[in-house]
Amino acid sequence: GENVEQHPSTLSVQEGDSAVIKCTYSDSASNYFPWYKQELGKRPQLIIDIRSNVGEKKDQRIAVTLNKTAKHFSLHITETQPEDSAVYFCAASETSYDKVIFGPGTSLSVIP
Amino acid sequence: GAGVSQTPSNKVTEKGKYVELRCDPISGHTALYWYRQSLGQGPEFLIYFQGTGAADDSGLPNDRFFAVRPEGSVSTLKIQRTERGDSAVYLCASSLVEGGVTEAFFGQGTRLTVV
Asked: Per the CB < 8 Å rule, is B42 touching A105?
């Protein structure tokens, strides 16, 4: 089955700096890669996703890249703000409506 | 409300007891997922329904766990003979499969504590 690894497990950045979270996956059949943000005590919420026919996708301060050959994908947050502090999960799935396998999470702290 | 609703929000039960956790998906969403999240970990897949049938139940840890969705809407996750290791937040999510593009929306979860 699919296995998703994620690093770093914790990340602290100064406000305004960039944050990068990297993930790897094992199943070459995976084609859908969502990223979720989970604030303390709250539900995971989708922030961006990418499909295997696309190498990069941007949405304002957030960008994701995908290297399907190497089975790597990354989340980039620019101009970080304190409200970006949360746990971020990468995930992989064969399609956008199949079971989604999550990574272990990265706890991001943005220091004002 | 328009979101995924899970009840109860908290459940404390004694080891060996039976529990049921309920999920009300977003109206019209055909796909429903159950996940389990332990402290400091990512959500762990349990089971996925497409309509009334379980499309994939490969994540259920053992035969003490069972889930149903008899009318293709509300789902119930049932855990028999609970063990302390079952303590976790149980998350439900739903999505609308339309044109292959969909987002899964999560509920707030049920925090299960087995004492």
From this structure: yes
- Taking the C-alpha atoms of residue B86 and residue A54, their distance in angstroms, rounded to an integer, is 39
Residues of chain A predicted below pLDDT 50: none
Cα–Cα dist B76/A21, whole Å: 35
Q: What is the pLDDT of residue B98?
A: 66
Chain B residues with at least one Cβ partner in A under 8 Å: 31, 33, 35, 40-45, 48, 50, 56, 58-59, 91, 95, 97, 100-109
How many CB atoms neighbour CB B36 within 10 A?
22
Cα A56 from Cα A19, distance rounded (Å): 16
pLDDT digits (tens, 9 = 90+) for A69-87: 999 999 999 999 999 999 9
Mean pLDDT of B77-86: 98
- Rounded CA gap, B76 and B88, in Å? 16
Q: Please check the confidence at residue B101 and state whether its pLDDT lies above 60.
A: no
Distance CA(B4)–CA(B49), nearest Å, equals 15
